[in-house]
């Protein structure tokens, strides 16, 4: 089988950022999660938190899959009664960040001036400084937060934690406005299921 | 309770009246037009059953023999009546017994509202007696589910449940109500049906430009082919569909859940699709130039091998569920929307045409199929009885006006292939899930949904033994259901596959049966068994003419195969006649 054909049948997997606006409802996380697990797809990162509109939540889900699979997943998610809207984007289409916390022994940090420089170079800031330990925080892409782990490891890194990814969609003029319309509008008259189809270039949706 | 009812009747809309959560639930069901409830009581749903004691006149509760029977009855009711089926079950095992029916209703888009009792809210998560995490168990097999722990939620939640179950692409909804919420009194301000949920859009917006594109494609077609599914029936768009087919002149074939949307003998109805469908519709799927799919979902049993399915054709797909578009088959022109709205718009834009040469091709294939398969199946002349001739003779006796409820397996394929259906909502079967044991309870529900019609449950000897306890429900409710068991003393469909693909290695398909007629008699149901050709017609007539339920067991040939057949992994064009 030629490479050409191969890519046709198995188009390349890549990271996709799925953004889901939902009602704040018990059990909805499970309803969304099983759409992935049923197809044996791993969720690489999941963040859910209140959006800018009260009572509406925003999920950021990261998966490594083909576009075709991600489109089908997104449609299944959007079909759920308590889901308002789903978008999916490649990494190029979003600005994204992860937050990381690093706990290191204060005495070593205080003694080693080079560590301080390294921290500064990596954009970290101290959140807590105690006699026994200091907690630094940094935000960035996976490689960036990973890099600081490597740097701090020789200096007695005690604990590390990283958040899920949050992502802002670059081409997203009017999401906030759109959400407010969802708030206001009566039965789906003006809020069209397929309205973004004409906008395919700018926004990925169903 | 009596007092509560009277007060409710008296009170003006604005006034509130103090009632229990259970009474509020029953009032909600009445306002939603519920006529019949299929259910089974138990500890955690007792307050609702206690309230039901005072609502006997208004709500007809049918006591089933197993919760699975209850939910299949609810499905049968929904299929023939077009209304939402309502099912009651208790917590724990009562609720888990609903799961098969929920999965069946989910995949076949059947509107249901299931109410399950649950342990007291303060016991949730303590492994209390008959406590099961019903919400999480049923999440993958419900369109929506919700746990009520406070009585004040009941009116709104029930109104949402009915709205979600019946609107858009219908489906099952489960509401789990904790015992304290059933008992708790609250100020009930009356029940308002729901018609809007902010995050839920049951119907996509109809986009005219796509209807125009679809019409252009259809108008330019030389060999167009229509595939229709249950969407036409669920959308109550049979008239609109018939108008479309007749104006377009396009040969049209059906999925088994779409059967009967237009009559079997309509000149443009070219037959059944899929693994055991008709010869022409399968072969010519791979010859048409424009494929118009209406309210169907390209199930693998319909498409066969997907990468060899209609690759030459441009595809127009009409569906109410946007997630069905491009799910299995790449669409050229998608038409989102309720086909009740999209079909008339499309009909207006297409040219009135006919395709005599193209239609003749279907006829050619049909005669080949008659010669190779159908003649031997429905007019065998000698030898043991065949399933096909039983269905053929049944057609003549019912004149195609009966509701045919089928179970799952060979008899199902034969019944769907050969049953004559004159009207819509005449075919009740477990399509997507393939649930053996479906037919007997579903037939009970089907009769409640269409009391004026003859309901015949066609069941195999295997499937009948999965839910035969529902004979008790038939006995107690006194309902008139005709039970036609096609007994080949095998789990026939699995045996057929073992014969064809596993070198006759018949692994656990030889199934013994009790004396079905004696069993029916034990339940006070009349019955008869027949194995001779000369007695078949009279026996079928005796069953149809009998006042009340009747069980007819027909001994059919043991090792008959259902053909044509698209073997698994083959393209529809590779359909076998033998």
Automatic annotation (TrEMBL), chain A:
Superkingdom of the organism of origin: Bacteria
Catalytically driven reaction(s): 2 pyruvate + H(+) = (2S)-2-acetolactate + CO2
GO cellular component, one term: cytosol
SUPFAM superfamilies linked to this entry: ACT-like (SSF55021)
Pathway linked to the protein: Amino-acid biosynthesis; L-isoleucine biosynthesis; L-isoleucine from 2-oxobutanoate: step 1/4; Amino-acid biosynthesis; L-valine biosynthesis; L-valine from pyruvate: step 1/4
Biological process annotations from GO: isoleucine biosynthetic process; L-valine biosynthetic process
Assigned keywords, A-Z: Amino-acid biosynthesis, Branched-chain amino acid biosynthesis
Record carries keyword DNA repair: no
Any one GO MF annotation of this record: acetolactate synthase activity
Pfam families given in the database record: ACT_AHAS_ss, ALS_ss_C
Enzyme class: transferase
InterPro entries xrefs: Acetalactate_synth_ssu (IPR004789), Acetolactate_synth/TF_NikR_C (IPR027271), Acetolactate_synth_ssu_C (IPR019455), ACT-like_dom_sf (IPR045865), ACT_dom (IPR002912), AHAS_ACT (IPR039557), AHAS_small-like_ACT (IPR054480)
Record-listed E.C. numbers: 2.2.1.6
Ranges where the ACT domain occurs: 17-91
CDD domains xref list: ACT_AHAS (cd04878)
Family (UniProt): Belongs to the acetolactate synthase small subunit family.
Oligomeric and partner information: Dimer of large and small chains.
Stored NCBIfam families: acolac_sm (TIGR00119)
Protein name as it appears in the record: acetolactate synthase
Species whose genome carries this gene: Daejeonella lutea
Automatic annotation (TrEMBL), chain B:
Matches recorded under Gene3D superfamilies: 3.40.50.970, TPP-binding domain
Pathway listed: Amino-acid biosynthesis; L-isoleucine biosynthesis; L-isoleucine from 2-oxobutanoate: step 1/4; Amino-acid biosynthesis; L-valine biosynthesis; L-valine from pyruvate: step 1/4
Signal peptide (residue range): none
This protein's record includes keyword Endoplasmic reticulum: no
Cofactor note: Binds 1 Mg(2+) ion per subunit.
Catalysis performed (reactions): 2 pyruvate + H(+) = (2S)-2-acetolactate + CO2
Limits of the Thiamine pyrophosphate enzyme TPP-binding domain: 407-554
GO cellular component, one term: acetolactate synthase complex
Residue ranges constituting the Thiamine pyrophosphate enzyme central domain according to the UniProt record: 211-346
Organism domain of life: Bacteria
PANTHER family recorded: ACETOLACTATE SYNTHASE CATALYTIC SUBUNIT, MITOCHONDRIAL, THIAMINE PYROPHOSPHATE ENZYMES
Protein name: Acetolactate synthase
Organism expressing this protein natively: Daejeonella lutea
